[in-house]
Model the fold of this input.
Amino acid sequence: MILSFAEENYLKAIYHLSNAGAVEVSTNGIADELNTKPASVTDMLRKLNVKEVVTYRKYQGVNITEKGRLGALQVIRKHRLWEVFLVEKLKFNWDEVHEIAEQLEHIKSPLLIRRLDEFLGNPKYDPHGDPIPDEHGEFKAKPQVPLSELPLGGSGLVIAVKDTSPLFLQYLDKIGAYLGAKIKVLDKAAFDDSMEIIIDDKKTIFVSREVSQNILLTE
Amino acid sequence: MILSFAEENYLKAIYHLSNAGAVEVSTNGIADELNTKPASVTDMLRKLNVKEVVTYRKYQGVNITEKGRLGALQVIRKHRLWEVFLVEKLKFNWDEVHEIAEQLEHIKSPLLIRRLDEFLGNPKYDPHGDPIPDEHGEFKAKPQVPLSELPLGGSGLVIAVKDTSPLFLQYLDKIGAYLGAKIKVLDKAAFDDSMEIIIDDKKTIFVSREVSQNILLTE
DNA sequence: ATATATTTTTAGATATGCCTAAATATACTA
DNA sequence: TAGTATATTTAGGCATATCTAAAAATATAT
Done:
């Protein structure tokens, strides 16, 4: 099945939205995710429906099919492998790789990806802690808990980040909250859900709810 | 200056045709090179003319401008660096890399290319012996003589290949005419321009004019 | 349950990049 | 140099992917 650039991006967006809550994905939600207009989404959904990567009935939202899920996972696999390459081999920082990987993920060559995977030593996680699907779309996600849900006194290791925008990642660099860092909750403020945490038993800081929701930990 | 995928491909084709003979490039020549129709070329030439990467007056052929030449060289730089990456790092054979590099050459990120160049150790030549332009479009081509022009008894080292199609490269692999191999002309047949050669003082074979024109040597 | 608000779709454009068929300009040749 | 062949351009379409504005369907709230 051959998908265009644009089709791959829509599919990926629908996959992500499916996982982030309801199975039913809305036209507006996709438009938001992709910074396009709802009218454009409607057009594309009809095309994706014909290709049987989603099931779509107008006004009824859209569901990704198994075929679509596997297609999306292949694009995600490529994206994450390229991110590993950029960080591990080309010495990019983790906040610089997303945009470039958005381009690289559309390169069509199964052999290239197999060789790249090998060259990188078959990594299982990308620089943001997200799991890399294998050739069959299989992956194992480690159990992840947002920092925001930790109880007072609770602790865990940073295993992934939800928001991968440069600004957020740069902030994490600044406070030293790298992947693998240990975070312990010292205090929680009920009124705004901010918390005081200590990173690697060294640095004590306050983080807002916005931040604590986007840091994922293993227990 | 931002060029589209298609614009970059046209520019590259025009650059190659400019170098391979006349400065004036023909509409049909470009159509041939890109496997498109002359009518499509005419459309594109008008666009490229507006962007000032070529000078074009209808029925008068087209010339690449300095701005266009530099643009083309950047695409060529990316193409050749990716080819080095594919062969040196991902263990592709030299006949497998062209198509993939055709895709990779359009990735937009100056920083990526700078880092890739560094990672590869600033290579000066690609896997087919072609020089890699630097960031300013500068490169030094070694003097190249087609095998077909060598006199009887003459010899040289394979420094590049003109035809980079998989079939030709596989043929060269088969006869052992890798980059760096020594070739000596043992006999020349005037009637069909075929020749008998010896490769690395070991293997004697006959090659047609078609082949000898596409093997480039240093003297 | 009816009115209002929101979401989604349709209709009609636009831009890119390609095509075929026909017209026109240039080149070649007798 | 006239006539033919070749090269090039124009005209009109098509597909993809986007948009705005308006219409239609669905959701919500009193």
Summary: The interface with chain A takes residues 86, 89-92, 96, 99-100, 103-104, 107-109, 111-112, 115-116, 119 of chain B (CB under 8 Å). Residues 66-89 of chain B form the longest helix (24 residues). The radius of gyration of chain B is 19 Å. The longest strand of chain B covers residues 155-161.
